[in-house]
Amino acid sequence: MSEDTQLVADIEALGARLAEAKGSITKRFIGQERVVDLTLSALLCGGHALLIGLPGLGKTRLVDTLSTVMGLNGARIQFTPDLMPADILGSEVLETGEDGSRAFRFIEGPIFCQLLMADEINRASPRTQSALLQAMQEKSVTIAGEAHPLTPPFHVLATQNPIEQEGTYPLPEAQLDRFLVQIDVPYPDRKTEHDILIATTGVEEEQAHAVFTAEQLIAAQKIVRRMPVGEAVVELILDLVRACRPGEAEAPQIVRDTVAWGPGPRAAQALMLTVRAQALLEGRLVPSADDVIKMAAPVLTHRMALSFAARARGEHLSDVIEAVARDVVRVEAAA
User: Into which family does the record put it (predicted)?
Assistant: First the structure.
């Protein structure tokens, strides 16, 4: 069997397994297929996700279900203003042995897991938030000058409440950039909310079952990186990211008028990965221009900022990004 034939077979097998995983997830997290797809995309790409939504929309339930379905060792941290870095990373304690000798022993914190839920991450102080930076980027933490690697795979799914801003600390741009995607969790529609009422207020609830193991998820992440991306899609990603930077010559007038600063190269890397995952979740072997449009807002929104004048006018980044993406695709198609 040739290498290309084997890759096609691997992608198709992974697609079938992902369909089963989505079926298991939606037994407990009803509806919201877009939210499920984006979260799975983050895991398939080996990245982290920031879930933004109002209380009671099932963000915690989704992360708990993912831990079961993806076969990952999960942990949850409720972020509060008095949370300290050692509460997340762990600390060294001085122990006295039976022979009277004394030595330091490292006690691991909750970050030593495979799927970490950082609940209401913006309620912790910047000092505590920064404790996650090294772990999210380098998959290890340094305590007392000694590096402690995290067991792969390692993913952070953080939640943030968009309305309760009193007593919160905005995430620094450097940390936001570490999140592969930002996922907005909206209110469910009427039919979905009806199904939620029926499914969750009875004597028994549906239970999710494991579909992946940690090793299988790591293998899936390697397959995603092997998926081919056409040169036209690569150029489209570059054109889109560069068009969202107000200082670039390629930036359209809408970006110059509304955007204070745009996405960096890490955004283009994130798009290259997530369009592959999006295609895979839809049962296709290669990504298309439509995948770039679908993933543009989740990948770019938290890597950009509106100008003060644009915020005063009530502009929204998602609208700007979608307009720029469709314009770039139109220009590419015409060329």
Answer: Belongs to the MoxR family.
The CATH architecture of the domain made up of 227-335 is: Orthogonal Bundle (1.10)
Cα–chain center distance at 286? 21
pTM over 0.85: yes
- End-to-end Cα, the chain, rounded Å: 38
b/e map 243-268, b = 16+ CB within 10 Å: bbbbeeeebbebbeebbeebbeeebb
* 188-233 tens-digit pLDDT: 889 988 988 888 887 777 788 899 999 999 999 999 999 999 999 9
Over its C-alpha atoms, the chain yields an Rg (Å, rounded) of: 21
Residue 316 and residue 254 in contact, taking contact as beta carbons nearer than 8 Å: no
Q: Across the chain, where does the E strand assignment appear?
A: 49-53, 74-78, 90-96, 102-108, 115-119, 140-143, 146-149, 155-160, 181-185, 259-261, 305-306
Encoded tokens for 97: 């042995």
Locus of tokens 């915690």:
60
Within 8 A by CB and 6+ apart from 189, the residues are 31
> What are the backbone dihedrals phi and psi of residue 141, each rounded to the nearest 5 degrees, phi first?
-130, 150
> CA 111 → CA 85, 99, 285, distances in Å?
10, 33, 35
Q: Tokens at residue 335, please?
A: 């060329």
Q: What average pLDDT does the segment 150-157 reach?
A: 92
Residue with tokens 């939504």, as numbered in its chain: 53
- Cβ contacts of residue 10 below 8 Å, gap of 6+? 223, 226
> Could you read off the pLDDT of 16-28 as tens digits, one per residue?
999 999 989 988 8
DSSP state of 314: T
Is residue 165 classed exposed, middle or buried when 0-12, 13-18 and 19+ CB atoms within 10 A define those classes? exposed
pLDDT digits (tens, 9 = 90+) for 293-325: 999 999 999 999 999 988 898 888 988 999 898
Query: What are phi and psi for residue 323, nearest 5 degrees?
Result: -65, -45
